[in-house]
Amino acid sequence: MVIMKNVGFTAWRRTSQIAFILFIFLMPVLNILRIDSDTHELILFGMSWSFGIRPEFYADQTALGALRIAGQFFLKGILPWIVFLAIFPLLGFFTGRLFCGWLCPEGALFELSDFLTLRLLGRRSLYGRSMQNDPQNAKGNRLLFGSLAVLCLVMLPLAGGVALTGYFVKPATVWRQIATGHFTFGVKAGIIGVALYMAITSVFVRHLLCRFVCAAGLMQMLFGWISPISLRLKMDTARISACTDCKGCDKACFMNVTPRRNKRDISCVNCGACVMACNRELGSGKGLFHLGFGKGRALPEENCRKLMPTETARI
């Protein structure tokens, strides 16, 4: 099944990323999900979520009474977590790492860091020389992008710290303390801790965290890899001769995937950047790549040798 062969991926993807970030920020404000530190209860869709173990349950000292308490704890304490944790394997099985490329707030932050580094240094990485997949002539006005980078480095982690602290302390309390300048230890520790984490990972770690550390990403990666029906990048091998060897698809990928190898890559986040790059080179709707569900065809080895540099073709 072929989908999204000629869609403006970038605009849709940025819209979905911004919308999901706003949703994450608003969830505790709207009492969709947060922990009430005053009552020590979980607030879910405006209602208090507890284990439902009433005091009279403890009065029954029989085995049946113990079983009743255990069952209640399982239904209200363990089962909801199992259901929640099953979301990412299911997403991976059906959509691959689509969540990583289209919704993940951290992924969006890392992409912004890549963009600013590219404009300042001419490469995505802070370390070493430019990589083969870095776009050429990407440097911009250093004063402009340097100022923007500093502003983002200060404001975005602080905003994230305030938003995520609101999941554990009532958001109104957090904002009241910000307005007055008088912070409790919990609010101060929450904001500073999250802000430091976001600043460090966005500057020094970035997509390495997505590839090797993030549990949600790893679950999607594993189940997307074994799934015979998941969403994935495919190449139209019947039109392989149309490739101009511009390497635009390679340079568009911020996850260091080589799309023209036409093999499932566990790092691919189905962002569609290579699809757009190929459409720009060959014409709208004429690109060699598309996103689709199900197994794709493997690129013949002889075509790999024609398309890829010698050392890459041997991989």
How would you describe the overall organization of this protein?
The chain is 55% helix and 7% strand. It has 315 residues and is mainly α. The protein has two domains: 2-8 and 229-313; 11-35 and 89-218, no CATH class. The chain has a three-stranded antiparallel sheet with strand order 1-6-5. A three-stranded antiparallel sheet has the order 2-3-4, with no helix packed on it.
Task: Describe how the helices and strands are arranged.
Elements: E1 2-3, H1 9-29, E2 33-36, E3 41-44, E4 47-49, H2 63-85, H3 87-95, H4 98-102, H5 105-121, H6 142-165, H7 171-180, H8 185-205, H9 207-212, H10 215-226, E5 231-235, H11 248-252, H12 273-282, E6 289-293, H13 301-307, H14 310-313
Antiparallel strand pairs: 1-6, 2-3, 3-4, 5-6
Helix pairs in contact: 3-10, 5-6, 5-8, 6-8
Task: Considering the chains and any ligands shown, give keywords for the structure.
315 residues, mainly alpha, disordered N terminus, disordered C terminus
